[in-house]
């Protein structure tokens, strides 16, 4: 009888241990699932964000771009009496939005306008490595900075606040040129060119430089890069962005209604392996 009681107690104890272990394992699995992006493609966004946030090589690439820009400015010979300026994009050219990409990937989502507004309204983006000192260098050399961005008018105040956090020059309404009717930046660039001599253009997306790259196919983009190849590192300063851009939408033929599954299929169909 005594032995039976002892066995029952041991059995009860083991059952409790087993139950607690199962519950802990289930909770751990649930937590992990919450942190998992819901499909394979979005892992790509995490990986590119990891590069942007952690790789010293990304940092070096940014320095390399701003150094090329300084070099161009130092060697520039004005051809008119107009005041000198540069034109720069903002996102992934001056500000680092990789936390937004990570946030979306963990939610199992891609970019969408509403969540983007939520992110930009926080004015929480950091500057890219070297951006601040480069823009101060422009200011010190009496070169005005025009920020031409495809952020919307509703993002104006938050965008200015974000840039002002880092004491960036020319962070006022006259120098922040947001998207109005079209994502093409050509008309906005031409407006600046009427009154300023523009030394160079900076961007992470080819459409930041010329209408040669507005909504073009992958082949046209590659051919047009070849056509103006001597401008890169001089008049066109490219910042790295593996996270998003026209390079990605060109892959999907600039169609925005593909499902993630369809995008996966396209990616796999074009990748070279061996
Ligand atoms: Mg950009």
Biggest sheet strand order reads 5-4-1-6-7
Return the structural class. Answer: alpha/beta
Identify the overall geometry. Answer: globular
Distance between the terminal alpha carbons, to the nearest Å?
71 Å
Mean pLDDT: 90
The top level CATH class name: Alpha Beta
Provide the β-strand percentage band.
5-15%
Q: Give a short account of the largest sheet.
A: 5 strands, parallel
CATH topology: Rossmann fold
Mind explaining what this structure looks like?
The protein has 274 residues and is an alpha/beta fold. It has one domain: Rossmann fold. 52% of the residues lie in helices and 9% in strands. The strands form two sheets. The protein has a five-stranded parallel beta sheet with strand order 5-4-1-6-7, sandwiched between helices. Strands 2-3 form a two-stranded antiparallel sheet. Strand 6 (197-203), helix 9 and strand 7 (236-238) form a beta-alpha-beta unit. It is globular. Magnesium ion binds at residues 89, 91-93, 203-205.
List keywords for this structure.
single chain, 274 residues, alpha/beta, Rossmann fold, 5-stranded parallel β-sheet, two-stranded antiparallel ribbon, 11 helices, 7 strands, 52% helix, binds magnesium ion
List the helices and strands and how they pair.
Layout: H1 2-35, H2 40-54, H3 56-74, E1 84-88, E2 95-96, H4 98-106, H5 113-121, E3 126-127, H6 131-140, E4 144-148, H7 156-164, E5 176-177, H8 186-195, E6 197-203, H9 218-227, E7 236-238, H10 246-251, H11 260-270
Parallel strand pairs: 1-4, 1-6, 4-5, 6-7
Antiparallel strand pairs: 2-3
Helix pairs in contact: 2-3, 2-4, 3-6
The chain binds magnesium ion.
The site of magnesium ion has 7 residues, from loops.
